[in-house]
Every structure is written in structure tokens, then in C-alpha cells.
Amino acid sequence: MQMLKMKTGSRLLCGTAFLTLVAAGALAQPVSEPACDLVDGALPADCQRPNGTTAVNMPTGENTEWDEGVVAAPGGFQIVIDGEPVIGDARVEDVIRKTDVALEEAKVQVRFDGLGARPRLDLQRSDASLGLDPGAPVTFTSQLNYPAYVTRGEVRIIDRASGGLGGRLLAVVPIDPNGQTNIALPEGDRLVAVHRVYDSQGRFDETVDIPLTMIDDRGLSGDVEEGTDAASRRGIPIRGGAVTVSGESVAPGSVVTTLGETVQPSPDGGFVLQRILSTGEHAVDVQINGPAQQLGYSRDIEIPRRDLFYTALVDATLGVNKQDGDSDTYTRGRLAFYANGYDDRGIEYTFAADTSDADIQDLFESFDDKDPSSLLRRIDPNEYYPVYGDGSTMVEDAPTQGKFYARIEKDRNYAVWGNSQAELKNTEFLRNERVLYGANVHWESQQQTSFGEPRAQATLYAAQPDNLPQRDVLRGTGGSVYFLSRQDITRGSEVITVELRDPVTGRVIDRRRLVPGTDYEVNYLQGSIRLAVPLSSSSGEGVVVTSPGGSTELNLVAQYEYTPVGGTVSGASVGGRFESWVTDSLRVGVSGQREETGIADQSAYGADIRYRLGENSYVEAEYAKSEGPGFGYRSSTDGGLIYDSTAPLTGNGHATRIETELDLAELGAGRNGTVSAYYQRRTEGFSSLDYITSSAERLWGFDVEVEASDRLTWGAYYDDFRNDRDQRNSEGGVQAIYKQDAVNEWAFGLEHVRRDSATETGNRTDAALRYNRQVNDSLSVSVLAQATLSNEGLSRNNRFGLGVEKDFGNGWTVNAEASDGTLGFGADILASYERADNSSLYFGYEVDPDAYDIRRSGTALSDNRGRFVFGGRRQVNDNTSFYGENTYDIFGNRDSLTSTYGIDYKPTQFLTYSVGLDVGQIRDDVSGDFKRHALSLGANYEDEQLTASGRVEYRRERGDDDLTARDRDADTILLTANATYKLDESRTLLAYLDYADTDTDETSIRDGRLTDFVLGYAVRPIDNDRFNMLFKYRYYYDRYGQTVDGTDQRGPLQKSHIFTVDAEYDLNQQWSIGGKIGGRLSETASGPTGGFRQNDAWLVVANARYHVVHNWDLLVEARALKLDQADTTDMGLLAAGYRHFGNNMKVGVGYNFGSFSDDLSDMTDDDKGLFINAIAKF
User: Fold this and answer.
1) Listed residues 404, 420, 436: the one ending a domain
2) How far, in Å, are 256, 393, 527 from residue 946 at the CA level?
3) Exposure pattern of 445-473 as b/e (b: 16+ CB <10 Å)?
4) Which UniProt keywords apply (predicted)?
5) Residue 1003 in contact with residue 994, Cβ under 8 Å?
6) CA distance readout (Å), 1170 to 534, 1104, 1118, 1131
């Protein structure tokens, strides 16, 4: 097992080698033999010293050559270089072998995993499958893989339901890194835990919220070493490498002590422990103690300060073409390289480039231009061979749409050229979250405030967008499945957030970004999202019921990139932000961006300031200005079946925002409570990611909530919205909540409402009384009585309602609230069932008498009969799980039904099936009927020999849009499959298939058909390297036509069969023979209306290479090219000689007596002539 990163040769070149002097006995169990005296300067044959295997690392000088004239007599020691014994006592080697045998029996390994290991921080609690009550005992387990960098840890218990947006800190409990602590939960409504760890300078990392009063369904394992990471903030710089100690066959009842910690192996005897250690030398001790096994040993590991992996190729050719008596000089070349490493200062750098083969003068002219295919695609097996039989795999470590990628990073500072997310944060008006191609630079200071933020940070990006951006705003339906407005979504480009918005003022109250894989899953081909938890349509109800459907809207906002059907995208996107905490309390920031993408032609800039009064208290102000049109968005109220488009605005505008949030207890007011206030002004023409202002708007408001005593809480609020179209909406009121005792609670509210718009004008004053009773720990009920005291122009709002919250104790809970009155019937009912095995079931019904149709100018529908939602997921057994959801919306004159079903079935540990079905239907007498069916079938198989996967996607849409007179019929079939079969260690077979058949109106997906099938076979014997063979067959059928020169023009259509066989055999050390047979059966057409023309060709190549002496190679190659339609056969001969210069470069001179090359795609017939070729590889 290799313990050191550097090989012997490289260490000798550096002038330092480490010689390990091993004496008998220290690496094995303590021996009982007595010490022996030397006899004639040597140990007796049956004796060994107690320190016989003690290892000592001895650095040597520059001279490490062996002196052949000195014979080293064995004498109780052994010299080992890089783990290999060089000279010494055979008995010492036998002792080492005994230790290795003992380690092999326990299958214990100590390995260095390289620099740049990803730090992990997490916190796990007991009874994660249950929601805990206040006073319940809970055990927390700290989990991190870098305790060497941490001096202390703590668990912070926070009630997110009180104390303002940040919640109230209730307790701080110390905990050792990777240790445990036990507490009783304090009182609180929505308790969460945050794990925070500190380094010696007070910098800290912390996790996301870990729910306590709700189920923690993150699916974590009880094993500290499973590798989960829940960090939300990182402030501790970590430089070093990961060391992993693992074992597989530890005897039952044994414990393992290593890296300063004790590990309890699993029942099958396995264990794994990974820790990040600083650079330098470390002695890793492993002790296994148990009734059936006693083992102890030590291994020295060096974690280098620097590390580098690189590979490069430089190919240049100078030649003279001779054709029809004329000669032409050409120069062609290619530069390709990849490098990743760390230097002494802890800087990680990644560089990659591939210019592809081109004229040398053109290699770097378009070096920064984006390419329709990424760097990885340009090393696609389609262009070479799909499988080489060497077991290699591809990792896209340099994502880029151009020819060049670069990333330099250290301590969260980075500079990137390639694909990355251009994100501007801490600004409301100029937020940006797009994934772009270009330059992206981020810097932040290592100094931090007492709250963990960097003192200063800056972000700058300049990019060439490769796709068009899309923003969808979907109103919550109470369900978990939503359809995006586009298909063919760019993978990984989505940013999904849940947004809480005031429907009166349009102000965003709060937003939370969802985590992919945990909070949602995306089907990129179908363009659909499945949430882990259903999303309601409204939230945030006060005492007075202003709107039966809820006082705030919950929206699912999806920002993503999609591939346009009209070709590639041109333009530029530039932006940046700088912010600095001048003091621990004062932050200033400036932001700016410029968009020239598609129809967008906008400049925007702004400045903001934030003054922090405490951890949860602040005052903030922002100013922003936009010039020109930005991006529009699409919105839907039915889960994405029907969308309404909001076009971008032309013109200029500006926006101003001032807001504050004050935590009274934090500011020393002597009582709990919050005070918040805001003011916004947006002029006509201002637009941003979240706002499009068609007329000047002004909005302001405040909210006060104070706990006057343990029993009494009172509050006041006011919201006011006005615009230049003489529209005004305002709401204001006071409310008080009195806790009579632990069972009874009374709430009173008084509210005044004013409306001035084209649809309603007037005012109204309402009073409400609500009674809540906690019948027992599992049941609470509430009663609402509300009356209008006065009104003018507005309808009265008399109302009576009932509410119930019931926990049946068997996994079922019911939350139901319904009310009726002069404004209509409203209800929100949700029954849910949760089990510890991750199974759930839910049923919901909601009705909003104020609901309106976005397709009909916001007209309210008086006969809305509500929306039903029924769904769930179930883990039937270890092999089968399924989910399903049905949403039935009886929405006035329009009924809609959406159904989603899915099954995951794993009959064996190697095979998994998945099935998904989506059905959507709308019956609308005004806009027209619409139906959608989408089916997804998938399978995956993986064992030691075969790896295969496949997926079929089918989508059928039928309907007419009567409002726009557009036919919405579309059919889409997509199939992707791949398989790799390892016949044996020497032979590998690979195949993959991509198929698309689309019949659309080309608004989202292009109309046409595509089939791309590739079969590859490789023979690479492992017992010798004399014979190698590669085979490739490709069928390509394209009726889409490729984009030409980045325009909307369609390129030629084609149908092609192409196959190639390459083989080489080494006759002896001097002679190698090889050959190639290729064929192309092709038909091409200039366009959809043009006829196909046949274009077939056959190529045969035979060659011989002679290795003259150490530095010289000779090549002779015969070629034959047959063109069927031209009825011609061309013969050619190529001869070349190459001179090697060291191990990394060779230069050759040759002459091609034929006019064609060995590339079937080369139709120029201009290759005859002399050439000089130089190749360097590293």
C-alpha cells in the first residue's frame, strides 16, 4: 500500500529521500524473548531485540547513490525506501510481514486521499422521525471530519416562531466536536437546532436549521462517517488533506482507536474514519482491542504542502499540399491540457484547454468564444472511440462552453473562466442567480465580524449567455407537482425559491431557496418539479379575516435556463457587487449589471446600506435604477397547466427601499416583541428580477407585536399601496391575544380597509373575536366571530368560522379551518399521515371566494368550488416505493385535474426500475380545453460486469387556446440508453442510444427527429500489450438540422452509417504492424424540402512501424479510398520518420503520396505533399 504521495524518483530529484530504518519487533505485538548479546557482532539466529521493528525516518543529503564497493552486513535492521526493502536483515522483514498479515486479516487500511478534501459538518438528533414537544429529552450528536481545526462547539436552540424573522435564541449548549450532549427542550412553537463550531481565532462554521418540533426527514444515518454535510455558513479556513482509516473484518466485540478517537465497528466488522489533517508528517496509530483480537500498529503519512496532476498535448504540423501541379503551404496544430493542484500557500488551481485541430494562426483567435459543445463534449467518444478498454472514466472537472477553463481558489476566494453561477446577494432589487459562461471573480477578506460575516467581499462577472433565461412564478396549489413553462431545461441551471408575497402591495415579505435533491426534484426533459412537501397557496392569517383565502400568497419561483429552438444565443451579461462591513454594525454595498441577451437591453445599478443593532435587529436602505427592458416572466395559478405572460418593460425607472426589523428583547426593552417597518417607491419603467413596474408605486407599512406579560400580547399593523393610476389599497388594525390559562386563549382584532380601484371603491371597518381552546395535548379547537362595524362602498364582511387541529397519535394529523359569511365560503383543510419508514399520506381541500383567473384580466369568479388535493408516498418494503398526487380544481367556469404517479422498484441490489405518470386536463368554456399526458420509464442496472441505464419520456398535449387562437397540440418522445459490458479483463463492449421524435409548434422544443446510436468494442489484453484493437459503429439520423453559424438557419439533414476498426500488433521490440478499415454509408439533404443524395465511401489502411534504435521510429502506410457514387478508387502511400527527444517530445518528417487522409469526414482531397510534425506530451 502506498503511504506517500511522491514516488522515490521525484524525491531523489528534489535532493531529499526518506530512509526508514526498521528494527525488529516494534510494529508487531510486544515480544517476550529476553534481550540477547551480540555474538561476533551479530544477533544469534533465535533471538531478536525488544526494539526490533522501531521505525525512524532519517532525511539524507543530496547524495543518495549506492556505493557498490561497500557491502552492508545485516545486523538487526532493514532499510526501506518508499515501502520497499532495499537491504537488511531478513528476520526483520519477516517481522514486518507478520504485521502485514495481521493487518490483512483485519483488512485495515490507512490511506491519504489527497489535498482539497471537502469538509463536512452536521448535527443529528435522537427520535428524528418524530416531532418533539417542549420538555422532551433529546440527544445531539456532532458530526464533522475536521476536528483538528476546531477548538470548541455548541448547539444553539432557536424558536423561529418568535423574535422576528431571525427567531429567538433560547439556549446555547456546549458540545465536543464529534461528541454528544443531552438536554430537555425549552418552551417554543417552532424549535430548531443549529450546530456551530469555532476555531482558535473565533471564526465559526454552522449548520442549517435542524428541526426539533417537526420531523427531521433528511434521511441521515447514525454513522458519523457517512459523509453528510449540512453547513450553511463557513468561516474556518481549512488547508490540508484527508486521511482515511478503514477496516472490514474486525473481530466482534472489538473497538478501534485511531486518529485520537474511538470507533465502534459495525456488526459485520467494518469501520471507516476520515479526518482532515494539516500538511506535514503525521504518525497514524491504530489500536484494535477486543476479547478475540489485539492489534496495534503505526503508519507514517506525509501530507504534502503542494500537489499537482497534469496532462498536456501539443501537436503542430507544417506541410505542403500538391494538387494539379500547384502547391500550397499549410500549418495546423492543436493544444490541449488539463492541470489541477495546490501550491505551498494552499491555492488550488484548475486549468484546461482544447483548441481542437485548426490552422495555427487561428488557434487562439477565438479562444474565449463559446462553443455549442463543452470541453468534455469536444473529447466526446463520438469523434474518436466510445470505449478504450482501459477502465477509465470521465469527470467534468472543468465545465465550460468554450475552449478554455480556469479556476483559482483559496479560502472561498476564486476566479473562474468557464461555466459558473453569477450570483449577487444581499440586494433586493438587483438580485441575480443565473448560470453563465464567462468570467466570475469572488473575493472576501479573511477578517470576520463578530457575527461571522467577512469584513469585505466583492463579486464580478462578465459572461456570454449560452441559453435564454426563464422565470416562472407558480402560485401554490396545496400540491407538490408543478409544470414549468419550458421543456429541455439546462441541467443544473435552476434556482428554486418559495416566496411569501403581499397580494395587496406586491412586496416580497420573505423568500427561501430550496435545496435540490432534498426539497425538490426536476425532470429536465419534461420540465416539471416535484416538491418534497406540498406547497399551500396562502399563509399568515391575523385575527381579522380580510380575505377568506389568506392574507399573503405563497409562490414557487423557478429561475432557470433553457435551450431556444431558434439557435444559439448571442449577447453579454456583466455585473458585480462590492460590500463592506465598515464596523461590526455598518455595512455598505454597491451593485451593478448590464444585460444584452435576447430581447433584454438593460443597465441597472444601485447602492444599499445596513446598520445592525443586534443579531436580529437592523435598519436597511437601498436605491436602484434600471435603464431599458429586462426580462419578463410567466405566472400560473393552476400548477403550470395554463400560463400568463408578463412582457418586459421599456423605459427607465428607479426604486427606493427602507426597512427595519427590531427585536425588543435584544435591544434591552425588558420584554419580548418585534417592531418592523418598510417603505418602497418604484417609478414607472423600473424592472428587475422580482419587480416589473408599469406605473409609479409607493408602499409603506409597519407591524408591531409586544408581549406585555406572560398572558397578554398585543400588536398593531398597517399597509398602504398607491400608484399613479389612482389605485390605492390600505389595511390597518390592532389586535390583542390573552392567554387565560394553559387551556383557554382569547384574541380580539379591529381592522380598517380602504380600496380605490377600477373594480371597487370604498372602506370598511371590521371587528373579530377568536377563541382557542387546547382541549388536550393532541386536540385544539378555535371559533371565530367577525362583524362589520361600518362600511361605505365595500361589501360587509360578517363571518363565522371553526378550526380544529388534531394529532391522533398514530401518525395522522388534521388541520382544518372553515368560515362562511357575506364574502363567501372559505376553507383550508389538510389531513396528513407520517410514518417513520418515510411513508406519508395527505388530503387537502381549499376554497378561496376571492380567487381570480389570470387569463381573464384578474376577474374574480363567484362560483369557485375549491381545489382538492390527495397524495402521498409509501415505502412498501426495502425494494418498492411509490408516490402519487391528484389535484382537482373546480375553478368557476374552468375545471382542471392534475394527476402524478411514480413507482421505484428494486428487485435486486443491482437492478432498479422507475415509472412516472403525469396527467393534466382543463375544461374551459372560454379559453378552450386542454389535455396533457406525460409518461416516464427508467431502468438502471450495475454489477461488476455490466452497467446499463435507460429512460423513455413521452409527452402528449392536445388543445386550442381560444384567447390567442393558437393550436397547442404537441407530441414528444425522448429515449436515452447506455450500457457498458466487461466481457473479461481484456475485452469491453459499450453501446448508447439517443432518440428524439417531436411534433410541436416549436415554442419550447424544435420539431423533428433524431437517432444517434453508437456501438464500441475494445480489446486490451492485460497479460501483454502486443495486441490492441478498437471498433466503433455509429448510426446517425438527423431531421432537425444543425444550427449554422449561430443563426436560426437550419443546416443539412443526414442519415449515416459509419464504422471503423483499428488494430495494432507488436511483432517484436522493433516491428509493429497495424491496420484500419472504415466505411461510411450516408445520405444528405440541404433541408426539409430537399431530396436525399447518396454519399458512400470505404477506406482501408495498412501500416508498419520499425523502431530502429532507441530514439528513431520509421512508418510506412498504404491507403485505399473508394467512393461508390463517383465510381473511383484512390490509392495512396505515406512514409515518415520520427526522432524522439527524451520521453516527452518527438519530431517527424514525412511525405503523403496520396491526395486523401484517413478521415472519412475529410472531403477536400488536398493532403498530398511533404509535412513536418512535432508532438509534445506531458
Assistant:
1) 420
2) 36, 15, 31
3) eeebeeebbbbbbbbbbbbbbbbbbbbbb
4) Signal
5) no
6) 70, 19, 16, 17
* Angle value at C-alpha 588, between 584 and 593, nearest 5 degrees: 145
The rounded distance, in Å, linking the Cα atoms of 615 and 806 is 36
Strands 728-739 vs 744-756: parallel, antiparallel or unpaired: antiparallel
Q: Which of 293, 324, 344 is the last residue of a domain?
A: 293
Q: Give backbone dihedrals phi and psi of 382, rounded to 5 degrees, phi first.
A: -55, -35
d(CA 790, CA 796): 8
97 plus 127 within the same structural domain: no
Distance CA 566, CA 1137 (A): 49
Amino acid code (one letter) for 316: A
pLDDT digits (tens, 9 = 90+) for 1078-1131: 888 888 776 666 677 888 888 899 999 998 777 888 999 998 888 888 888 888
- Do 127 and 95 fall within a single domain? no
Decide if pLDDT at 123 tops 60. yes
922 and 1016 housed in the same domain: yes
β-sheet bridge partners, residue 731: 719, 753
- Indicate whether 203 and 331 sit together in one domain: no
Number of domains the chain contains: 4
Measured CA to CA, the distance from residue 819 to residue 797 in angstroms comes to 11
pLDDT digits over 36-87, tens only?
Answer: 554 444 555 565 554 454 444 444 444 444 444 444 445 555 565 544 565 6
Do 79 and 64 touch, CB atoms closer than 8 A? no
**Identity at 559, one-letter amino acid code:** Q
Question: Is there a single domain that holds both residue 101 and residue 161?
Answer: no
**Is 494 part of a structural domain of the chain?**
no
Q: Residues 1012-1056: pLDDT tens digits? A: 899 999 988 877 778 899 999 989 887 765 443 333 445 557 788
| Contact status, residue 1102 vs residue 1117, Cβ threshold 8 Å | yes
Q: How far apart are CA 594 and CA 953, in angstroms?
A: 38
| Interatomic CA distance for residues 673 and 757, integer angstroms | 35
Distance CA 530, CA 448 (A): 38
Domain that holds residue 983: 875-1140
In which residue are the cell numbers 449577447 written? Answer: 571
Q: Give me the amino acid identity at 1034.
A: R
Distance, CA of 996 to CA of 598 (rounded, Å): 26
SS3 state at 997: strand
Cα atoms found within 13 Å of the Cα of residue 456, Cβ hemisphere only: 5
Residues in the chain: 1178
Q: How far apart are CA 473 and CA 485, in angstroms?
A: 10
Letter for the amino acid at 739? K
pLDDT band, residue 788 (cuts 50/70/90): very high
Q: From the CB of residue 532, how many other CB atoms can be counted at a distance below 10 Å?
A: 15
The contacts found for 216-224 with CB under 8 angstroms, 24 or more apart, are 216/125, 216/128, 216/129, 217/128, 217/129, 217/532, 217/838, 218/128, 218/518, 219/838, 220/122, 220/124, 220/128, 222/124, 222/141, 224/141, 224/143, 224/178
Containing 152, the helix (H) or strand (E) segment is: strand 152-159
C-alpha cell of 339?
A: 492541470
Shared-domain flag, residues 950 and 1040: yes
Q: Tell me if 157 sits within 8 A of 177, measured CB to CB.
A: no
- For the stretch 597-630, pLDDT in tens is 767 788 999 999 999 998 889 999 999 999 988 8
The CATH number given to whatever domain includes residue 269 is 2.60.40.10
pLDDT band at 358 (very low <50, low <70, confident <90, very high): confident
Nearest CA among 64, 69, 24 for reference residue 42: 24
DSSP labels, 346-415: --EEEEEEE--SEEGGGTTTTTTSB-SS-TTGGG-TTTS-S--SS-------S--SBSEEEEEEETTEEE
Closest CA to 1055 of 1037, 1035, 1033: 1037
